Amino acid sequence: MVRRTVVVAFDRDAMLLKRPLFVRNGTALLVGFSDKKEGLGRLTSNF
After folding, report:
1. Is the dihedral of CA 2, 37, 34, 17 positive or negative?
2. 18-36 pLDDT, tens per residue?
3. Measured in Å, how far apart are the chain's first and last C-alpha atoms?
4. Domain limits at 26?
């Protein structure tokens, strides 16, 4: 329930979001920047 609340807060106020937020089915998967581009590619290809 806490994860969903955080996602809703970001959705309502974009200024809270300073880094990329990856969400699937209303659940935050990852917040931040990836040092490895291939890791980010694997994450985004699953959407």
Report:
1. negative
2. 666 677 777 777 666 555 5
3. 22
4. 2-45
